[in-house]
C-alpha cells in the first residue's frame, strides 16, 4: 500500500486533516517547488517523523491531498433537465478555480503534473472522480430522451469543464458566471445535436 493511502480515524484522522490543510496552504502560497515536508509539519504542528513515516515524499502527500479534495467536493446537483445540471456543474468548477485558496493550489498541482508522473496520475484520478460523480446527469438525460442514445455521457461532462480550465490556465480571460453558463450551454447544445454519440450510434448521412 502506498504511503498516505490509509484512511484512519480518531487522533490519526485529525493529524491527517491538519497535515493536508497545511500542505494545501503551502501549495497555494508557494507552489509545488517549495512544498517541504518539514514546513508542512511545522504548520500542522506535528512531528516531522510523523510526515516522513506516513507519507514519505512530497508526491505522496500531494496524492493524498488530491484524493481528499475529490472526496470532499460538493455532490452533483440534479435539476431534472440537462442544461440545469450542466450549469450547476460549470458553476461548481468555476467557483473552485476562482477560489482564493483552491485556484492557486490547482495551478501548482497542474504545473507539477507536467513533470511528475505520480502527481499527474493523482490529478487524473481527481478529475475522474468528479466525472464519475456528475456523469449520471447526462445518463439520465439519455433516459429522458433529451439527448441521443449512444451518447458518451462522460464526454458530455468533460466538455463542460474543459473550456473553463483552458481559460483558467491559458487564456487569461475572466472566469465569471457568464463563462460558466456559456460552457454549460455549449456542451448541452452539442450533446443534443449528437456530437458525443459513438460512431456506431451516429446516424449515417443516408439515414437522415
Can you put this structure into words, describing what you see?
- The protein is an all-alpha fold and 208 residues long.
- The protein has two domains: 10-69, Arc Repressor Mutant, subunit A (Orthogonal Bundle); 74-199, Tetracycline Repressor, domain 2.
- 69% of the residues lie in helices and 0% in strands.
- It has nine helices and no strands.
- The protein has helices spanning 10-30, 37-44, 48-54, 58-72, 82-98, 102-113, 117-144, 153-171, 177-192.
- Helix 6 (102-113) packs across helix 7.
- It is elongated.
- Residues 1-6 and 203-208 have low confidence and may be disordered.
- Keywords: DNA-binding, Transcription, Transcription regulation.
- This is TetR/AcrR family transcriptional regulator.
- Residues 13-73 form the HTH tetR-type domain.
- InterPro entries: Homeodomain-like_sf, HTH-type_TetR-like_transc_reg, HTH_TetR, Tet_transcr_reg_TetR-rel_C_sf, TetR_C.
- Residues 36-55 bind DNA.
Q: Which descriptor suits the 3D outline? A: elongated
The residue fraction in helices comes out at 55-70%
CATH homologous superfamily identity of the largest domain: Tetracycline Repressor, domain 2
CATH class of the largest domain: Mainly Alpha
Task: Briefly note the CATH topology name of the largest domain.
Answer: Tetracycline Repressor, domain 2
| N-end to C-end Cα span | 54 Å
What is the helix tally?
9
> What is the beta-strand fraction?
under 5%
Written as H for each helix and E for each strand, in order along the chain, the element string is HHHHHHHHH
Mean pLDDT across all amino acids:
88
Query: Which spans have pLDDT < 50 for at least 5 consecutive residues?
Result: 1-6, 203-208
CATH architecture title of the largest domain: Orthogonal Bundle
Describe the biggest sheet?
none
Structural class: mainly alpha
The radius of gyration computed from the alpha-carbon positions, rounded to a whole number of angstroms, is 20 Å
Number of strands: 0
- How many domains make up the coordinates? 2
Keywords: DNA-binding, Transcription, Transcription regulation
Pfam families: TetR_C_11 (PF16859), TetR_N (PF00440)
DNA-binding region: 36-55
Protein name: TetR/AcrR family transcriptional regulator
